[in-house]
Amino acid sequence: MKVKASYLPYLLILPAFAYLMFFVGYPLIQALYLAFTENGAFSLATVNRTISDPRFWDALKYTIGLAAVIVPTQVGLALVLALVMNRAFKGKDLALYALIIPLTISDVAAGLIWYAMLSPSGFLNKLFLNIGLINNPVYFFGYQFRHMEFLAIVLAELWRATAIVFVIILAGLQMISPEYLEAAEVFGADYWTKLRKIVIPLLKPSIQSALIIRTLFAMQVFGIVWILAGRDIPILAGEGFYQLTEIKDYGVASIYALTIAALSIVLGAMYIKFMKAEYLEVKE
Amino acid sequence: MNEKTKFMLKQIAFYTFVFTVVAWIVVPLIVVALYAFSSKLDYYDPSKIIPFHYTKQWVYTLLFTLRALDAIKNSIIVAVLTIIISFALGIPAGYAIAKFIFPAKDTIKLSIVALRMFPIPVMAIPLVVLYIRLNLIDTLLGVALAHTAMALPFVVLITSSIFAGVSTELEEAAMVFGLTRLGAFLRITLPLALPGLAAAAMFTFVMSWNEVFVASVLTLQHRTLPAQILSIMAGASGGAAPDYYKFAAAFIMMLPAMLFIFFARKYLITMWGITLK
Amino acid sequence: MVEVRLENLKKYFDKGRVKAVDGINLTIKDGEFLVLLGPSGCGKTTTLRMISGLEVPTAGKIWFEDRDVTYLPPKDRNISMVFQSYAVWPHMKVYDNIAFPLRIKKYPEEEIRKKVKWVAELLQIEELLDRYPAQLSGGQRQRVAVARAIVVEPDVLLMDEPLSNLDAKLRVMMRAEIKKLQAQLKVTTIYVTHDQVEAMTMGDRIAVMRQGKVLQVGPPVEVYSKPNSIFVATFIGAPEMNIMDVTVKETEKGIVLEGEGFEISLPQDLGELLRDYINKTVVFGIRPEHMTVEGISEFLHVKRKAKIKGVVDFVEALGTDTIIHARVGSKIIKVKIPGHVPVELKKEISIIIDLDNIHVFDKSTEKAII
Asked: Distance (Å, rounded) from C-alpha A70 to C-alpha A75?
């Protein structure tokens, strides 16, 4: 009985673990093989082919650029939303319900939805035309309006994925004992002091995990960009997809994949290193 | 009086803010639902912000001519397969993490937490090579297997938290009264965990239903809905469809997700809280 | 240092459906240690939170001396509070936790250092200043919370069941320490607890609360010996006061209390107090420590006694005391005798009652008559 119990948990976990290991391990090895060999021998030909293509660097630039604009905005926005939604008020449940809807909407659908908002005959253009805010429709789509496409992607991503950050931060907020805030209030802290000295420091772990999750997902952004901008705005996953499905160059596609993996690992490690919450580390 | 006015103003500002935020989320959903059924003329009429004449034509064409109905069937098959496989693998693991204490548990849990963020494109691109060799390319099972890899870490984390919520003593009591561990699990813990597991299944369904990259890469003829839509709609592949098809597509895609929210709303925040920690 | 005055203070929740605090009038004198005592849900914590400013009263006034603070936010009241969960902020080291109230009040760092040092010495936590709360035990965290509360030298110190999360031994120790500290600092203190032993040992005065109302206020000894109602009588003291229905009868022996299976004839002065209740049912109360058993232990300084018969049903031997459960009629009466005494089960005994310590309550109003 004793012996049985000691290997039982491992036995229960093994299938899931082995499955995951295979689906992570095999692609990584395969990708490395595809990227760094030619005719069975080590070769940098594929690498050279990729990095000599300016689109690779554009894709890298745009992927990071999109993340740099979107992720901090989302965290700021989500923090404000979470602080607002953490109070009790009439209609809170309904508001909460509305806020988390985007969590269940796919990136492709979100792209299409924001196309409906922003297209030349879309809702916002018609609305602003009719109330006289603009005289001609604002064009968001097409290669010549690439900067506007970038903006459209940012808007759609803010709409779609802020909810994830919001849920994480709200969960973190709800974990903060109200007595911590009441204590600060009793000792004379006003709202902003409480926010700065108590709430934000205590939220650090939540903000950290939100940042990690959002940044890593931003590195693999695909559907929303593909729908709204196609290859006008090149991104790593999109270019990898293009190389794989159109050019059939598995080697180059693998390098795009490996770039995403490398970026994820580096960024994840950076966050963990620089955003340590010291008070959580100490234990007797 | 002064204090009271200040309070009132604060209240008004607060509700205005909440209202704006809710509108920001909800208005696009309403707009796309209306536009999906808008007549062509109304959509292109700049004076009609909201269409007045409606038609089912776009949705019908999309479903039948553009084969979205087949794609929906495929999506459902893939999602159900994903639920079956990922639950078969995930429930034992989740149970073990919730109910046993064993060496390396934290390491295993941590690596599962980390794996949930493994980039999908990194998995999908090299997988094509293997799938061609195994004749899994362009099969629904192939997509489901890949989706399982994507969903499994979430399933393990969610189920472990669900099982942790079911008191161990209930199960132990059943064992004291003569059930085996498996029997106790099947007759006590599982029924108690059922509502949570149902919500987790819906979560998995939505994950698979929404996934586009893997499905697009691994299939050609047997497209799931997002893959099919992407190949019709994406600006880059040249097949830019008329706008109203795009809205019809968005409408069809977001429907099950909304249903999911409706049925699982009780669990939503907690569940995302668990998976995102 | 201030006097705190509560004037007809009310707090209703849920649109008046729940009357958490229902009209309290109470004056806490300058430098006094007042204990709000009552069972959970009696409104004592809500009262404390209204005094702190964390809760806004539905009606009534709160005065600090002649300053109306009813609607002032906590920061403008110069109060301090020790919370039940301590609320020691986990992301700040102990030093920063204690320094927080001073920093808010913009003290210069030099003075902050001095004050923190002073209070850390007072509570013997100098070694802990550089640690995070996660590295402290419950008792140490408690000390930090107290240090943080007194470092600003508040006008009023509020404590919300501060000892309830400590283990029994620590609790007894901290009880004495907090009491000593308060006497030394002479700060007006309001202390909320449901533990009557804490209330008895710590308070200068006790206010017993039930269902949002204060039933009795007074020094511990007075509340113990002259409870004004059945609730106060039974809430204070352990084991609790024996309570039973009796009928007041006038006989040739004078006024007697006639209960099931016993009769107590009262001395004339006590009897006269019950003249209005002749042939009516009243509630008779006697504390276990105000009785003894004939042949086992004797009262030394008790002049007026009565005797009733009972049968030993059960004995709790606590070592320091022996509590005899005696069956009288269909009732069980508990008698507490100091020390360990051997008592046979099922044996018939004579219980001696100290007549100067009996209580009689009105059956319908539950108010004390004697």
From this structure: 9
Going B53 to B56 to B62 to B65, the CA torsion angle's sign is negative
Q: Do B129 and A30 touch (CB under 8 A)?
A: yes
The CATH number linked to B197 is: 1.10.3720.10
Whole-prediction pTM value? 0.85
Q: List domains and CATH numbers for chain C.
A: 4-235 (3.40.50.300), 242-362 (2.40.50.140)
B155 and B225 in a single domain? The answer is yes
CB < 8 Å from A in window 236-275 of B: 236-237, 243, 246-247, 249-250, 253-254, 257-258, 260-261, 265, 268-269, 272-273
Task: Identify from C48, C55, C91, C141 which residue to disrupt to test chain A contact, counting A C-beta atoms within 10 A and taking the largest count.
Answer: C91
Q: Tell me: do B107 and B234 sit in the same domain.
A: yes
B97-140: pLDDT as tens digits: 998 888 888 888 888 888 888 888 889 999 998 999 999 999 99
Quote ipTM for the complex: 0.88
Among candidate residues B119, C173, B269, the one with its CA nearest the CA of residue A261: B119
Q: What is the pLDDT of residues B69-87, one digit of tens each?
A: 999 999 999 999 999 999 9
Place of tokens 């999906």: B36
| A30 lies in the same domain as A64 | no
Residue contact A257–B125, C-beta within 8 A = yes
Same domain flag for B257 and B125: yes
Torsion of CA A33, A37, A38, A39, to 10 degrees: -70
Domain with A108, as residue range(s), is 59-281
H or E, element range at A270? helix A250-274
Which of B130, B153, B234 has the CB atom closest to A30's CB atom? B130
